[in-house]
Design a protein that fits this description.
Number of strands: 7
Helix content: 40-55%
Largest sheet: 4 strands, parallel
Structural class: alpha/beta
Radius of gyration: 20 Å
Distance between the termini: 48 Å
Number of helices: 13
Amino acid sequence: MEIGSEISARTLAQRDALLAYLQPLASAAVAFSGGVDSAVVAQAAFLALGERAVAVTGVSASLASGELEQARAIAQQIGIRHQIVSTDELTRAGYVQNSPDRCYHCKTELYTKLTEIAPSLGVEVLLNGANTDDLGDYRPGMRAASEFRVLSPLADCGLNKADVRELARLWNLPCADKPATPCLSSRIAYGEQVTPERLARIDQAEVFLKELGLGEIRVRLHAGELARIEVPVAILPRLTEPALREQIAERFRSLGFRFVTLDLQGFRSGSLNSLLSISKS
């Protein structure tokens, strides 16, 4: 997007503030998923630091299909160095047990790996993509960021999710309108154990639904190997059509789900967090 009247003064000011925040850093590694938040931080870090910036993507069984390829493509477009690191969160008991602080254990694993490889990458500071909207949500991963002294440039510069998307459009990033794509473990109800088999099954189920053209979807796993499908409310009637309904049910049963349900409330990002308020009431 060319800078012109369609770019607000607010967006330009936020761009300048973000670059000014990063420029004094000697070097930095961005925890880079390829989502819009981390992509904007990676773009800003590259503009501010050049070769002294690197984007690092953690790869494990909890990464959804296609996400690594998208991250690679975005990093290549930005021009930033890109490093892949394997993470082993499934060896951490707190992660596998899937308590409400699962993300803390996941981010602890990621930041541990980033800290270990930082010297070989020639970087001194770790950055994440948290924005101000994240600060008001239930985000145990932010506790891990604090413990590892990870900086949050977007939040520190006062950018919310909408602001981040505007910056992504300014920089022509292909993920500007990309929906949030959290890790596959976020689809498993708290208290249900996270296993490689369950993650693979959820991933295959979501790939299947996307191939049917169902758009933004989630397959949530609950006790008893029950799959709860979330799709946009507008297309709920389509999934009740006999032929498609039976096709989905048959495929899910073949993947190992015992029960297949359709959530009548439709797609809701982070819907499993509603179980937290229920358990506390």
